[in-house]
Design goal:
alpha+beta; Aspartate Aminotransferase, domain 1; 5-stranded antiparallel beta sheet; 3 helices; 5 strands; globular
Length: about 140
Amino acid sequence: MKTSMNLSPKEKSASQQIDDIIKETPDWRGKKLSLLRALIKKAYPAVVEEVKWKKPSKPSGVPVWSHDGIICVADTLKKAVRLTFPKGAQVNDPKKLFNTRLESKTVRAIDFYEVDVINEAALKAIILNAAALNTPKSK
């Protein structure tokens, strides 16, 4: 796994910032986010962790996993942890994991709830497919 290493001594790496985001969510959503993060990194070891979109309403920012572009973005909602795939409409989803943003022409997302058991193989396939969409095509 790669992270940005151009940090001043006081700055934290993206991985450390995501660790903090997980710690800031001490209930089941933090555990689910931690599990999803581990599955993403296991499915696609070349993934780069980033934290984007820091703003007053979300000062810690949003965890992002990318490789030649964003693969997916995580967000903790009140009743779910959401993985959003910016190119999700192009991703093959034979197991029908996508359960939200289904009307979008580009984006698809998966809301994971507290009692959900994650279909690891199907999620891995989605992650790999999303990463492949970012891979530059050779001429």
